[in-house]
Amino acid sequence: MSEQSTASLSPEDESRLSAAKKRAGRSAVLGAIFLMATSAIGPGFITQTATFTATMGAAFAFAILISIIVDIVVQLNVWRMITSSGKRAGELANSAIPFSGHLVALLVIIGGLAFNIGNIAGGGLGMNALLGIDPKLGGVITAALAIIIFLIKKAGPVMDVVLIVLGIGMIVMTLIVAFISQPPIGEALRQTFVPDELNFATITTIVGGTVGGYITYSGAHRYLDSGHTGPGATRQVMRAATTGILVTGIMRYVLFLAILGVVASGVALDLSGQAANPAGQAFGAVLGDAGLRIFGAIFWAAAISSVIGAAYTSATFLSTFTKKLAGGWSLQLATVAFIVVSLIVYLSIGTAPAAILVFVGGFNGLILPIGLTVFMYIGWFRRDLLGTKKYPLWLLIAGTLVTLLTWYMGIVSVGPIFAFLGIGA
């Protein structure tokens, strides 16, 4: 709306317009929190948690702890820098180092595609558990419903509501299963800090599945739509980011405990085969056949919310290459196209859905340190791009240490991660 038309409004109309803008801003903030949360607790993380808990037992708790610590450091830095600058990640990176934004955008889009193939596979697994239909058909239905959401004219608010409802549903169901499965909490707490087994490929995979690839930027990009950006909005931004991190951190550990209780009871989970669904087996062992169906609904909710998050965030990086895709209807159509391509690739490959979900986490863990390196450079040397000379020293130090850690984990984990798909040693 132009300044001229705004000036002609009555006081009552101006008040309604202001209230509408505030509601839209709050919706975008809540949407950003749940977009980050549901992206970090998608079908990949659920499957990875079931797979690694079955093979490592309580020792997997240490990987959960590392993923939460990395998540805190990464998200606080990324949210603060993106919202303070008012620019999306690719544009901000290009402002600091020419063409680095194009590299980050390309990697995120490739990683987002890998994630979305896994997310659609997760939708297929969820529908298989819920309705007994073929996982491929379930993947098609999941992708189709996500596409419908983005074909709605005002997709942003609809996306926010869907993510909030699905996120709350996942949390409630997991809490119930964790309570019923009666996990060995004492042993889990001990191995959270002093693990009997240390596996860097596992840590890299779970970090990549919870904060790697597009997930690093999903909440921050959605938060830009709230309008509460710039250096003056730092406190509100940090509060929103912290809220999302706490929700995802608690959810990760509760999910781990729920599956650990099943594994500790002596139930052996099937980790191989086209129809293998280790997390579904764990929930079914606790709640019986009805529990397996309910789990299917929750797993499908995690999948479609992650399809939405991966497609939307990956599409926002396309604006790094052309401003025509910066927002509006063009961004929605780009998001739809991204989902269609992901679906076609999923339908054309023969790898078991569970194996895809484990692999994509590891793959995105490998590309995570590249984007972090650019952002740490901005924090240390290009604070002028953030609109302020002040930046918390502890965040920069912590961010640098996490960046070095992710580089190390990625280097030592390349072989084992590709082995999830039968590639390499």
Number of strands: 0
Low-confidence stretches: 1-6
Order of helices and strands: HHHHHHHHHHHHHHHH
Gap from first CA to last CA:
59 Å
Let me know the average pLDDT. Answer: 80
Largest sheet data: none
**Rounded Rg:** 21 Å
Number of helical segments with 4 or more residues:
16
Instruction: Name the helicity range.
Output: over 70%
Write the layout of secondary structure elements.
Layout (H helix, E strand, L loop, with lengths): L2 H5 L3 H30 L2 H14 L3 H26 L3 H8 L3 H32 L3 H17 L3 H27 L3 H9 L6 H12 L3 H10 L9 H31 L13 H39 L11 H21 L4 H29 L11 H27 L6
Written overview of the protein:
The protein is mainly α and 425 residues long. The protein has helices at 3-7, 11-40, 43-56, 60-85, 89-96, 100-131, 135-151, 155-181, 185-193, 200-211, 215-224, 234-264, 278-316, 328-348, 353-381, 393-419. The radius of gyration is 21 Å and the shape is globular. It starts with a helix and ends in a 6-residue tail after the last helix. Mean pLDDT is 80; it is low at 1-6.
